[in-house]
Sequence to fold (315 residues):
Amino acid sequence: MKKQNKILLIAAIIVGGIIVLSQSIYVVDETQQVVITQFGKPIGDAVTEPGLKFKTPFVQKANFFEKRYMEWDGDPNQIPTKEKKFIFVDSYARWHITDPLQFYKRLTNERGAQSRLDDIIDGETRDQVASHSLEEVVRNTNREADTTAKISEMIEDSLARIEVGRKRIQNIIQETANEETRDLGIEILDFRFKRINYVEDVRERVYDRMKSERIRIADKFRSEGEGEASRINGEKERELNQIQSEAYKEAETIKGKADAEAASIYASAYNKSSRSKELYSFIKSMETFENTFDSTTTIILSTDNELYKYLKSMD
Fold:
């Protein structure tokens, strides 16, 4: 009986020792930082170095916080711009805990930090978007539009010049938000607009205006194309008529020269004797008959006509 009691006592001591030891030791990972609290109040400095650490068992508690960069993802909000155009703005940010002790005192945990960042960053985003025009929120620079020069000339409302730009607005939101989070033990490392878009009713009107503008440009291009086509066809017809006229002129010139040369050859051939002259006159007269008369032709000739003597001789 005494032996059993001794074993139970030893076992109880071992279990108690394990419990006390587990309450006295805690491990800090490389990605963690710890604030020790006693009866709910923080004591000492924050533990930021990794390793095996000790605390008073049952009295003190280790509160672990993230040392790495964390993400804040805001909800899309409907915000009016300076010119009262309503847009949806979706944003995100990265932040980390710079002072764990102050962080615990002001925010308790990371969930409380996310809730506080919602109020701070959303508020600053609303203020800055409402203080600037839509062009300032969307664009970064005053670069020229990426389109053809012809279309650029046809678009009446060219891009307005910006003075601040999206990047600078993001930096302003980050700077002003950091001023508000300075006493919370956290720092906002980066802030960006993730998505910016019109609300649904405004978006439909913008799309309709864009469609009508593109249709107007297309109609103007089509009209200019038809005018250019008509000009090209006119030029083609004019050049074709000119070519045909010059070709006809050249052909007639060649034919005239050929006829003159043929007549010269005939003249030199038939002027050799009186009989050759009579033969030439007879042949030409027969050609005239062939080209001029047919079986239905009626003619009246005087007796002194050159053709009459051949018709008479035929009789």
User: Anything to note?
Assistant: The first helix runs from residue 2 to 24. The chain has a mean pLDDT of 82.
